[in-house]
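Design request, tokens follow.
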């Protein structure tokens, strides 16, 4: 065995894989989104998924999408991208990249821009027609943040957990 393995996963597969695995932590019954922030030299800096702030019980807050503002999830949940940004306590995220399983909303786009992230690698863009994502793309482009569609290899990876 003098030669290295050739079927190892790529950096893109690795980081999008971490984002997808992070999404599996979400308690949201409808939407599970994950994010992984990576330095320009391919070191993982932070991860996040959509959920409630620390101390707010997953069992006491609403997870629905309908009804009055105080009775649905939107006022209470934090998106995966913002959680990944806030989870990072190591210093600056300047010049990093963020891998996301779903294109960031306008609110997350603002946080991405303001913390110095320079590239967004996204998988799904299923809300591309919404005002939120249109506004997000407009701001990311204005700020010079590179937007990159993740190119799936189609590879299946299974884990025994
Ligand atoms: Zn968002």
């Amino acid at each position: 065995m003098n030669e290295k393995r050739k079927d190892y996963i790529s950096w893109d597969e690795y980081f999008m894989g971490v984002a997808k695995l992070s999404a599996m932590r979400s308690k949201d019954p409808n939407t599970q989104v994950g994010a992984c922030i990576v330095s320009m030299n391919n070191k993982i800096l932070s991860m996040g998924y959509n959920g409630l702030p620390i101390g707010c019980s997953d069992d006491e807050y609403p997870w629905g999408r309908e009804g009055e503002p105080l009775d649905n999830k939107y006022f209470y949940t934090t998106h995966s991208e913002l959680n990944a940004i806030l989870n990072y306590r190591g210093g600056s995220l300047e010049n990093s990249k963020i891998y996301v399983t779903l294109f960031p909303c306008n609110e997350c786009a603002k946080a991405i821009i303001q913390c110095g992230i320079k590239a967004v690698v996204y998988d799904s863009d299923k809300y591309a027609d919404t005002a939120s994502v249109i506004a997000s793309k407009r701001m990311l482009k204005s700020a010079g943040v590179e937007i990159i569609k993740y190119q799936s290899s189609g590879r299946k990876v299974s884990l025994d957990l």
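Comment from the thread starter after seeing the answer: thanks! Residues 11-23 form the longest helix (13 residues).
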